[in-house]
Amino acid sequence: MIKSIVEFFTNIYIWAAVISWVAAQIIKIFIAFFKEKKIDLKLFGSTGGMPSAHSATTAGITFAIGKGVGFSSPAFSISFIVAIIVITDALHLRREVGRHAQALEEITGGHFNSKAGHKLSEVIFGILIGAIIGLLI
Predict the structure, then answer these.
(1) By Cβ atoms counted within 10 A, which residue in 39, 54, 84, 124 is the most buried?
(2) Structural domain count of the chain
(3) At 113, is the secondary structure helix, strand, or coil?
(4) Rounded Cα distance, 69 and 45, in Å
(5) 34: domain range?
(6) Burial profile 14-42: b = 16 or more Cβ within 10 angstroms, e = fewer
(7) 3-state helix, strand, coil in the chain (%, to 5)
(8) Distance between first and last Cα of the chain
């Protein structure tokens, strides 16, 4: 049991994903600070915006797996396909969710998460963060 717990916490692939996510979220806070001149720690758990943490997370684990067990391994192939699905959703599906939220805000006057989706630049920057971290781990 203890061995399993230790193996979990020493798994470099999990750390690649976690560190990539944390890095992306911290970068979001810094970008917002430079734009708005205030620190918004709520951004640490937010979705949407620059960079895409979903893209960073999946790219981080995918590149770490590629480096660790090979870019032609079955594990890399599975991770790559999952990353493509997540990144495609971040770029297209979640962007539509953001657009719907904006429309609902205009219609109802309520507040919805209109920043749920991503622009292509946000996704690319997220992928770059994850790839760099995944290859460095």
Answers:
(1) 54
(2) 1
(3) coil
(4) 31
(5) 2-136
(6) ebbbebbbebbbebbbeebeeeeeeeeee
(7) 80, 0, 20
(8) 26
Q: How confident is the model at residue 37 (pLDDT cuts 50, 70, 90)?
A: confident
User: 112-135: per-residue pLDDT in tens?
Assistant: 766 667 788 899 999 999 999 999
Rounded-to-integer distance, Cα 86 and Cα 55, Å = 7
* The pair of three-digit structure tokens given for residue 47, joined into one six-digit string: 């979705």
**Tokens representing 113?**
């998460």
Residue position matching structure tokens 């193996």 = 7
Global pTM value: 0.82
DSSP 49-96: SSS-HHHHHHHHHHHHHHHHH-TTSHHHHHHHHHHHHHHHIIIIIHHH
> Residue type at 70?
G
Contact call for residues 58 and 14 (beta carbons, < 8 A): no
Helix axes 12-36, 120-136, angle to 10 degrees: 140
CA separation for the pair 20, 129 (Å, rounded): 7
Which residue shows structure tokens 């470099």?
12
Place of tokens 């006057």: 109
